[in-house]
């Protein structure tokens, strides 16, 4: 069964590449790059010939993602827990959070650039802004679905707040929480990279904009592929962490 799935995926990927090659060769070679030209550009990129400072830009983007996500998780857990454990506050502020979450986040980025400039701070702020909402809403929903009877029993047996959270609340809200954390990570990555594309002086998004602006289309596509590989690696790591958490608390 697994072999058939892998074969189907390989066939689909090969078909996409062949269609891409044929379609690109029939169009303007300056704007439409076939895979046969992307692969040499990707090799030059990985060998640090086209962009010698690529590792520094990649490391900057990863640091921005890490800091933005850490802030999103910390603030999201705290705010979500407060709103979930205090029903009155939850009823007042949860609808406001939902309304803000519905606003296209890109409209906030010009204000963030004015406040923080073109450096890493504005990218971190934008990644945090996108990533914190799913965490807050996931924690809020998770706390609300915890059985109050179980919490009461745990407290009756002398469990403190920390032990109640670890042994009762966390297992009950694990599914919702891990989903929110993973969604928050994905949106944090999107926020940081999009922020670099919209206005930056360094990072992967900056290199993508730089290559595209100079019509170095092959290098542009190669940079996009590298960014895609990094995003997939981050998502795979998040999926592994989620599976381990489920096994531990199941």
List the helices and strands and how they pair.
Layout lengths: L1 H24 L9 H12 L7 H32 L1 H16 L6 H8 L3 H25 L3 H9 L4 H38 L5 H10 L3 H33 L1
Helix pairs in contact: 2-10, 3-4, 3-6, 3-8, 4-6, 5-6, 6-8, 7-8, 8-9, 8-10, 9-10
Structural notes for this entry:
The model has no long low-confidence stretch (mean pLDDT about 85). By secondary structure, the chain is mainly alpha-helical. α2 packs across α10 and α8 runs parallel beside α9. Helices cover about 85% and strands about 0% of the residues. It folds into two domains: about 1-30; about 35-250, Orthogonal Bundle (MetI-like fold).
- Helix count, DSSP H or I runs of 4 or more residues: 10
CATH-assigned fold name of the largest domain: MetI-like fold
Instruction: Report Rg.
Output: 22 Å
Number of domains: 2
Largest sheet: none
Decide which structural class fits the backbone. mainly alpha
